[in-house]
User: Which sequence fits this backbone?
C-alpha cells in the first residue's frame, strides 16, 4: 500500500481526530479577514468553522472525510482530490495544516509549486522535528522535515519570504510550527 492509498483509505486512522487547539489561532492570524482559502487536506475541516462559506473550499483525498465535512458544514464547498492541483488558481491563501509531513519527498516540490500557482500565500501547520521518516502499519506515512528543509523547499517553489510561529504540542512532546510563506 502506498502512502497516498493509506490516507485515501480509512485503515488505521484511529489516531486522526479533529484538533482545534494546536496552531489554529496562528493559522487564522495569517489569513486576512476577506481572504479566500483553499484548505488542502482539510480532514475534519476545523478551519471551516471560522471561515465564511463564500471564502472557503476544503479538499481532501479521503472520500469519508469529504462526506463528513459536507454534513457538518452544509454551506461550505468540499471537493475530493482526484488529480492535479492545477485547476485551483484564484485563491488568496492555501492552508496545509497537518498535511505536508504526509507527502513523499518525491511529490512535495511539485505540490508546493501547485500551491504557489493557486495562491500568493501559503500557510503550513506542521510538527517540525530533526527529520526522520516513520511507518504506520508497514506504510511509510510521515516525512518529518526540519525548519531549514521547509525553508529550502518553499524558496524552490517560488516563495521568497516566510515567517513562522510555534507552540508546544504536549500530545507529541514537540513544537507545532505555523509557517507563512509569501
Assistant:
Amino acid at each position: 500500500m502506498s502512502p497516498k492509498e493509506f490516507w485515501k483509505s480509512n485503515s488505521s486512522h484511529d489516531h486522526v481526530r479533529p484538533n482545534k487547539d494546536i496552531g489554529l489561532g496562528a493559522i487564522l492570524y495569517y489569513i486576512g479577514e476577506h481572504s479566500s482559502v483553499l484548505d488542502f487536506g482539510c480532514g475534519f475541516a476545523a478551519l471551516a468553522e471560522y471561515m465564511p462559506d463564500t471564502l472557503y473550499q476544503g479538499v481532501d483525498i479521503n472520500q469519508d472525510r469529504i462526506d463528513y465535512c459536507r454534513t457538518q458544514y452544509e454551506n461550505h464547498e468540499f471537493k475530493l482530490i482526484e488529480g492535479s492541483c492545477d485547476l485551483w488558481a484564484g485563491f488568496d491563501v492555501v492552508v496545509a495544516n497537518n498535511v505536508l509531513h504526509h507527502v513523499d519527498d518525491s511529490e512535495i516540490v511539485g505540490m508546493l509549486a501547485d500551491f504557489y500557482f493557486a495562491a500568493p500565500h501559503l500557510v503550513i501547520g506542521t510538527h517540525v522535528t530533526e527529520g526522520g521518516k516513520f511507518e504506520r502499519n508497514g506504510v511509510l506515512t510521515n516525512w518529518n522535515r526540519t525548519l531549514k528543509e521547509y525553508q529550502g523547499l518553499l524558496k524552490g517553489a517560488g516563495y521568497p519570504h516566510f515567517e513562522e510561529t510555534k507552540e508546544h504540542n504536549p500530545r507529541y512532546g514537540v513544537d507545532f510550527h505555523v509557517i507563512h510563506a509569501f
